[in-house]
Amino acid sequence: MKLNNLQKGRGAQKNPHNRFLQHVYEIREDFLEFCRLEGEEAESNSIEYIPIFPKTIVNKVASPDVGMEYSMNPYQGCEHGCIYCYARNAHEYWGYSAGMDFERKILVKKAAPELLESKIRHKNWKAKTIVLSGNTDCYQPAERKFEITRKCLEVFLKYRHPVGIITKNALILRDLDILRELGSDQLVGVNISVTSLSEKTRRKLEPRTASIQKRLKTISELTKNGIPVNAMLAPMIPGINSHELLKLAQATADHGALSFGFTVVRLNGAIGQIFSDWIRRAMPDRAEKVLHQIQDCHGGTVNDSRFGLRNRGEGKIAEQIHDMARLARQKYFKDKVFPKLNYELHEQYKTGQMKLF
């Protein structure tokens, strides 16, 4: 299959069955032929925003190898369409597919700012870094319309509460005014995801994300404004972008990043078949080689749920990636330190105004 068989602007090319649902929805070939003859689309490729009403918004992260204690997600599903995204599996809990549904059916939590405020004002809450977002990108295109992330940042600022941000979208620069104020009290740290220096690779892996140059510029702008940045060089996919790790580390360091992190790709749950289908369409010449190399990193399978190993990988290929990372830290980040966030101010501001006594 050739690249032009891919749906433009989409990562996943199919909607695999939701493992939690009894019934299977599939589009038959005879129906597709009927639609072709009638000049109709078999299904809509447009984005659907669906409001949902959770009772809580801050999640305790139980996983020991994720690197955060608490997270919150203003949106579920993500228009960016990154083909490797581990968050795809979470869409099945909402009754949707981890494939194209994940990119087209975006669940919107409009009450997130109010729920956040209620959480961090609770008398028993002690300040800990809450990360926007541990699952889907809080600055995905939906944020332009709903501005939920910005409203949440206003809550963090009001109560002087530490916040972490993970994104690959330059839209974060819209909120520099709030971020500067948070940064002045050491209350914010930003993680910018940069997975390749090749636009061709980026467009295939992450079809609706900001360009690489925009992401590097975003790191520079945040750094100039006193906001510490960690570069997320993740995931490293052998045969696609793992060979770029050193150059990625150098580029992000040159633009001001104070540290970097990475993971070795794993394809759990429905992501295994979504990624396999995609790579055989997008990169047919190297699809099997890449899949075999991913398996080599995870004990012979693309699926890995072992704490301590699932994000690190094992075997020769994973060892080579880790060796490159160690060298990158020595060469480009030797004298750089990502600061710890400030947990001391929040208690004084918990009522919404600074205590006088």
UniProtKB/TrEMBL annotation:
Record keyword Mitochondrion present: no
Pfam families cross-referenced by the UniProt entry: Radical_SAM
Annotated keywords: Iron, Iron-sulfur, Lyase, Metal-binding
Residue intervals of the Radical SAM core domain: 64-301
Lyase recorded as keyword: yes
InterPro entries recorded: Elp3/MiaA/NifB-like_rSAM, MJ0683-like, rSAM, rSAM_sf
Domain of life: Bacteria
GO molecular function, one term: metal ion binding
PROSITE patterns: RADICAL_SAM
NCBIfam families on file: rSAM_PA0069 (NF033668)
Protein known as: DNA repair photolyase
Lineage: Bacteria, Pseudomonadati, Bacteroidota, Flavobacteriia, Flavobacteriales
